[in-house]
Amino acid sequence: MRKLIAGMKISVDGKIEGPEGYADWVEAWSDDYGLMQQVDACLLGANMYPGYEQYWTAIQNEPDKPLWITGRVPTPKEVEYARFAALTPHYVLSSTLTSALWPRTSFIRGLEGIAALRQQPGKDIYLVGGARTTASLIDAGLVDELRLIVYPLIAGEGKALFAMTERRRGLELRNVQQLQGGRVSLTYGIG
Q: Is residue 14, in this structure, part of any structural domain at all?
């Protein structure tokens, strides 16, 4: 069975967004949590997908131009991830969305669709997010591994990654790695 691996960037106090609605402390969204060689599909929630598609399409189409959202030119790793995203099948968990710009995008209507996707042959699946989708899939017992990049700051107000989680989950620490800028990469198995 394919593993479903969630990857998220968070502050020390567990926030994925500040009070303005975005993680202004994240300099680049290209961190792939060491997953690009391990996965052959991505899964996102309906709220996150449209902006994700727009962001990575903009980088793929104009890698030398500043992005509207950041005001800066994409990094080489962002350009590399944009290419990966364009070639990788994406699945969107949604009961309402029916179309996408990327031709390799499919829609999954419920948890049983995700369970069926995990049964298909292939490499592992990268659960890109967002927070509500990640928390609900952890609650449903469908997420096998959680990879976090923790930023050395206290965000205070904002959206917490686990605010939606309904029940306690045991985690098994599998890897810790110190990154540049005081960030820490944590990998947990979910019990």
A: yes
Q: Which residues of 105-122 are buried (b: 16+ CB within 10 A; e: fewer)?
A: bebbeeeeebeebbeeee
Asked if residues 126 and 133 have their Cβ atoms less than 8 Å apart, the reply is no
Residue 125 lies in a domain: yes
Q: Which domain holds residue 96?
A: 4-45+87-190
Please report, in tens digits, the pLDDT of each residue of the chain (191 residues total). 999 999 999 999 999 888 887 788 887 777 778 888 999 999 999 999 999 999 999 999 999 999 887 788 999 989 999 999 999 999 999 999 999 988 899 999 999 999 999 999 999 999 998 888 998 899 899 999 999 999 999 999 888 887 665 667 789 999 999 999 999 999 999 97
Per the domain annotation, does 16 fall within a domain?
Answer: yes
* Number of domains making up the chain: 1
